Every structure is written in C-alpha cells, then in structure tokens.
Amino acid sequence: MPQAKKPETLRSYRWFGPDTMRGFSHRSRMLQLGYRKEDFTGRPVIAIVNTWSEINPCHAHLRERAEAVKKGVWQAGGFPVEIPAFSITETYMKPSPMLYRNLLAMDTEETLRSLPIDGAVLMGGCDKTTPGLLMGAISMNLPAIFLPAGPMLRGNWNGKPLGSGTDLWKFWTERCAGNLSETDWTAIESGIARSPGFCMTMGTAATMTALAEALGMTLPGASSIPAADSNHVRLAIDSGKRIVEMVWEDSKPDNILTPSAFRNAITVDMAIGGSTNAIIHLVALARRRGIDLPLHLFDDIARHVPVLANIRPSGEFLMEDFYYAGGLRALMAEIPDLLDLDCPTVNGKTLGTNLEGARVVNSNVIRTREAPLAESGGTAILYGTLAPDGAVIKTVAADARLMQHTGPAVVFNDYPDLDARINRDDLNVTENSVLILRNAGPLGGPGMPEWGMLPIPQKLLRQGIRDMVRISDARMSGTSYGTCVLHVSPESYVGGPLALVQDGDAVTLDIPNRRLDLLVPEHELASRRAQWIRPTPPSNRGYLALYRERVTQAHQGCDFDFLAPGTSPPEPDIF
After folding, report:
1. Other C-beta atoms within 10 Å of 533: how many?
2. What is the CA radius of gyration of the chain?
3. Measured between alpha carbons, how far is 478 from 476 in angstroms, rounded to an integer?
4. Residue 172 and residue 182 in contact, taking contact as beta carbons nearer than 8 Å
5. What's the CA gap between 426 and 162, in Å, rounded?
C-alpha cells in the first residue's frame, strides 16, 4: 500500500524531532536508557501494550511473546516500547472482572494518548482484556493490531479431555450430587488447566478473540493458535512487523471497523456458538466507533446463521481441535455468502482475500452447512414484561424441553441469599420452578458478575435434575451451559420488572416467540412498584464510585456514558 506518512509527520516526531528545550529533554531521557537518537527519531514508535502479570495464568507467556513482537518491530524498522496495562484476570478479581473492563479501556486510551506512540500491538486474550484493549484503541484511533494470547492446551483426566470452565461446572454438579469421589475431584483439579493460555472451550475468551479476527483487527488465522504452539511465536513476530507498515500507511481502526465489519462479527459469533458476553462487548466496541448495534440485530442475524463449531460447552471438542481442524478461517470459508468479504483487515487485504485457500480438515469439529450443530445461531434475544429492554439466552446450550416453559418463581434477592438458601431441604422448589436471581446486574453486582448459571438445588440434583429455567440480570461464563436467561434489562437494582417478582409468580419463557413474561396483573405490579425501595449501595470510593455513577445498562454495552461514541480524545498540545 502507498506510504501515507513521512518521518517528520509521525506522531512521535512531535516529542523527539523538534530542536527545542522539550525536544532536548525527551531525547536525552531516551539516550539515558541506552538507545541511539536514530533508534527512535523518525521511526514509528510502537507501543506493545501488554496485559501480562504474574497472577494472570491466561497471559503467563505474554512476557516472552512481547520479546517476539519487539523482534518484528525492529526488523520492520520501528522502535518498540513495551508498556504494561491493567491485567484483568478472570479467575481472581472480585466481585467481577467485568467491573474493570472499562478501567482497562481507559488505561489503554490514556496510555496511547499521553505518550509518543505511533501505533500499538495490543496483547491480551483473557475474557475482558480483548474488548478492554480494543475499546481504548478504537477511541484513540491510532494504528493498532490485536495479538490474541491463544487458548491453553486440552486438559486431561482419566484418559478423557477436559475443558476449562465447562467441565468444572459439570463435575462440580456431579460432586454435589454425590457421584464423584474426593480423589477424582483432586485429579480433575490438577489436570483441567495445564498450560498458559485462556480457556480452551468456546468461552468468552475464545469468542472475543475470534470476533477480533472477524472484525479484521488481527492477522488472518490468529485467534485460535494455541498459546503453547510455536506458530504463536511467529504470529507475534509477524504482528510486530505489520504494525510498523500500518503506521506508514496510516491504517487506523476507523478504516477497518465499519458497520459491515460488525455484522461479520455478529455472524461469526453465531456460527461459533459464542459466549453471550460477546453481545455486551460488541455493543460497547461499536459504540466507541459511533455505530449502533441494537439487540434485535443480533437476533435477526442469529435466525439465519447455522452453528458450525462443535466446541464445548455447546458441542464436543476443544479449541486445540478447532485450530487443527482449520481454525476460524476455515469456519468463515464455510459461510462466505453470510459475510461481507470486501471488509478491510489489518494486513491490508480484504476478508475475502484472507479466506482464500482456507478449508476444513475435520468436519466433526467444524461442521459443514449441510450438517450443522444447530440450524440457526446459538443465541436469542428475548423481550417481554420481564425484560422491556431485552434479555439474552444461549439456546444452543439449553435443554430443548425448556424452550417453552411456564413455572412458579423461586426468588433470591441477591447472591448471598442464593448461597444461603439454594441447598436447603425446605426450599419450596421443584423441577418446574423458575429460579430468579436479582441485584446482580451492572449496578447491583456491582459489575454484572457471572452468577447467571444459578446452581440446581441439591435436592433436585439427587433426583437426577440437571437443568431448569434460571433468570437473572447477571452474566454467565461463556464456558457455562443450561437454560439460563441473562442480562435482563433494565436490571432490578434500578427498579426493572425483575425487582417486582415474588415467590410463586408465574413466569413464562417462550424462546421460539422470543418472549420473557411475568404473568402478574398490571395493577398488582403497580402496587408493588409503589412499595419498592431501591437497595442502598455499600459505601464506595475511587473507581467503584465512578463506575456506579456513570455505567450504562447491559443493552447499552455497560460502558461509561461520558466516553462519547465516535469521538477521539484530544491530542496533547502542550510540549
């Protein structure tokens, strides 16, 4: 592609080029680090935004991969600078890592804005890091390329492959039912996650890196390379090389992230049976780009996209199998008529060009159009008296017998209430009941924790019950499964209809007709609404105080309202 930039027009040149006192100061400090003036003056300065930390197992290898990226940057004539970013680890952060996605986005945006950066390689993969990094980069709108951390290797126990998350839920259920010994449980614990990388099921991490590729923000084939595979090292080098070229070409996110690109991402999300969390993240990403993604668009697309990825929790296999079956390029090559193949990508070529030569080599893992895992996309959007602004369900991971169901509500006011009562023998619950959890949304959680896969009461587990209708304003891990209605909006904490449900109320789930209804007369609901008292938040400070004041609802992407869509932050003008 033609070179749009010259050395003196590089953004970093404003810091390092001028013959001024400030220019002297900036250059002298780089010389202090042992670099030569010609290393950083007139060359693209590339930020390697790294979410590595010693408490983030998904990113345990990214310290090494950063060195590979640097190698590529140097080889292409750029100047690499590794910069740490807030590392959101899915496992440990409480009450919810989702609470901190926006903090990573702000960290990324402000890092790129305030420093002499011309382009960025964004390194992440654990669930919230992919959207957080991309949100910040989209707002700053400098040339950027995403480097996925890659999935971990298959787990193993007793000669069987284990999938992180999904098999945790499955075997925990069996342990609660009394069907699993302590010895087996200990062996599963030590065998379920055995290499660096994110969850190797089609959880939120694998979903979001796939969607980053579908959006055009990664190199072709990047999203499913296992973290431990040597191809991942080469991917890092190639990403470093390419970002230097992107700076000279002035190729920015707003050139790539078009409305068609987002439609492609939604289509791919449905074809891989992706995590329900992807909906919130895609809405937020599009909003940063100034593009509106109404929830009904997801449902409209889902209705005519087959599920082709036979990956847990919806299917049988794991991400390592997916990669060796052809990966995301092969899957997208199965549905070219459903994609806009003219969309540009970060390698300077169109999506269609990048798919040339891709093929499925194992049709058990990546199904053909003639034999899909499911005829239509694995996610549905529901509306009704219980969800005026929408709710989400992963239909491909739900029990078919519960697709249309009416039952009496069993209500838990918050997570501590659920934890205290769910396994009591005197809980008035049957397999036909509808479990309701409220005060678990963006504000109620706070941070919309992954509590949406409400546990089945132990007394029902002992009867052989493994699924029932569960409804909440929480999220659910992408590795989870079951007939779980999520993201009910508006949330109960702000007075949404979920706040008014009482034990015994009839609740109807009707997935074919996309309905979620509370069968209580309006005059009764009006009476309850008049008596409802908003929960008192715990005393809070710092980031949590900002979050509570400015976060939007689930159907709006849970982003901060003050981060205006479609605008970039001002460039520093004082030197």
Report:
1. 7
2. 24
3. 6
4. no
5. 35
Query: 151 - beta bridge partners?
Result: 198
Give residue-wise pLDDT tens across range 308-352: 999 999 999 999 999 999 999 999 999 999 999 999 999 999 999
Tens-digit pLDDT profile for residues 455-486: 999 999 999 999 999 999 999 998 888 999 99
Is the confidence at residue 397, as pLDDT, over 90? no
What's 177's DSSP letter? T
Contact in structure between 211 and 147 (CB atoms under 8 Å): no
Cβ contacts of 424 within 8 Å, gap of 6 or more: none
412 Cβ contact partners less than 8 Å away, ≥ 6 residues apart: 418, 421, 422, 435, 436, 437, 438, 454
Helix axes 277-288, 259-271, angle to 10 degrees: 170
Token pair, residue 531, equals 């008596």
The pLDDT, as a whole number, for residue 574 is 66
pLDDT in tens, 140-166: 999 999 999 999 999 999 999 999 988
C-alpha 309/C-alpha 270 separation (Å) is: 9
Domains located in the chain, CATH noted? 44-153+195-354 (3.40.50.2300), 156-191 (no CATH), 379-531 (3.50.30.80)
Confidence at residue 571, expressed as pLDDT on a 0 to 100 scale: 87
Both ends of the chain: CA-CA distance in Å?
Answer: 33
Question: How far apart (Å, rounded) are the C-alpha atoms in residues 199 and 58?
Answer: 8
Q: How far apart are CA 113 and CA 139, in angstroms?
A: 10
